[in-house]
Design goal:
Layout: E1 16-20, H1 24-34, E2 39-44, H2 48-55, E3 63-65, H3 68-72, E4 78-81, H4 88-97, E5 101-104, H5 112-124, E6 127-129, H6 136-144, E7 150-158, H7 173-186, E8 190-198, E9 203-210, E10 215-221, E11 227-234, E12 237-242, E13 245-250, H8 266-275, H9 283-300, E14 306-307
Parallel strand pairs: 1-2, 1-4, 2-3, 4-5, 5-6, 7-10
Antiparallel strand pairs: 7-11, 8-9, 8-14, 9-10, 11-12, 12-13
Helix pairs in contact: 4-5, 5-9, 7-9
């Protein structure tokens, strides 16, 4: 049995946050961090000039750190990791050992072993993966019952080009976040994957059959301009989500009224969840990684059906049965 390690108690003052990574993923977090529930005190990037360029338009007095040691030296209560997933496991161990809450920009990991270890860490310490998907409106439609139970979800995703070291497109953040949201929309456990790829992996097609007979079809084109389109087919109608919003129709083709409440900013909502109460284990992110790995095995075996295997859970003994660090004193903001 594992005794979960609680996070360091939040101080009476506003919590401090640091952002790891000043690339495109880090830049997407900056507005929510500057106006969110925590005080952003620093940005870490090995390329200090890139970090300074990211902060140039923001007058806030922030520290630019070139190393993880410098960033953690700011005593953050929350670490937002939008840096390279290749370093994710090492970053997680260091941040969690200090008692900080850790919020990961998708993906959870790029391989099965690292994913299992991070999943184990999440059982012992406050580690979560941000849900940045735009599907709040689709979820509201399903909850309302007007569409009936879902049957098929067709997802066309064009995440844009990335350098080869970033990993296969289906393992990168945009695809992993979309797969996580798709699994949540359909609800059932995933059973089997069939996939094919072309253009060196830039074009990827996968069909996932779920345990209750529903299906998820993914078309991934990393060479096209960034965009995404979701088509949800349910017993009582359909709903399409793209850059223009949601269009929903019943089985007769009549337009359906959409929920009136605007969806929350996903970055701001992820920050709020990371600071409010215990972290939610990244079960959906782990399932998304398992989907992608099964699809890759299928594609590399010529389209052979592959079972979707849960990630092998691995625990880090260094973080088990250890008390939480004391709350930091209310020091002056650096």
């Amino acid at each position: 049995p594992v005794t979960p390690r609680p996070p360091r108690p939040l101080p009476d003052r506003r919590p401090r946050a640091v952002l790891l990574g000043a690339g495109d993923r880090g830049a997407a977090w900056l507005p929510a961090l500057l106006g969110g529930p925590a005080d952003l005190v620093g940005v870490m990037d090995p390329d200090a000039e890139r970090a300074r360029a990211l902060l140039a338009a923001h007058p806030h007095p922030l520290t630019v750190a070139a190393t993880l040691d410098e960033a953690l030296g700011l005593r953050p209560d929350l670490v937002v990791d939008a840096s390279s997933p290749h370093q994710r496991l090492a970053v997680a161990r260091r941040a969690l050992d200090q008692g900080a809450r850790l919020l990961l920009d998708p993906p959870l990991a790029l391989d099965e072993e690292s994913g299992g270890r991070l999943l184990g860490l999440a059982r012992e310490a406050p580690l979560s993966v941000a849900d940045l998907s735009p599907v709040a409106g689709l979820e509201a439609l399903l909850r309302s019952g007007v569409l009936g139970p879902p049957r098929t979800l067709l997802l066309a995703l064009h995440p844009g080009a990335a350098p080869p070291w970033a990993g296969h497109p289906v393992l990168r953040g945009p695809a992993q976040g979309a797969l996580s949201a798709a699994r949540r929309l359909l609800g059932a456990e995933s059973a089997e994957a069939r996939a094919a790829e072309g253009r060196g992996g830039a074009a990827f097609h996968a069909l996932f059959t779920l345990a209750d007979g529903t299906a998820l079809a993914l078309h991934l084109d990393a060479g096209a301009a960034p965009c995404a389109s979701w088509l949800l087919v349910a017993e009582g109608g359909t709903a399409r989500l793209d850059a223009d919003g949601i269009v929903a129709r019943d089985a007769a083709g009549t337009p359906l009224r959409l929920p009136a409440a605007p969806p929350p900013d996903p970055h701001a909502e992820a920050l709020r969840r990371a600071l409010d109460g215990p972290a939610r284990p990244p079960r959906e992110a782990a399932e998304a990684l398992a989907l992608a790995l099964a699809a890759l095995r299928s594609a590399r075996a010529g389209g052979r059906p592959e079972p979707v295997r849960p990630l092998p859970l691995a625990f880090d003994a260094a973080l088990v049965h250890r008390p939480a660090p004391a709350a930091p004193r209310d020091e002056a903001r650096p």
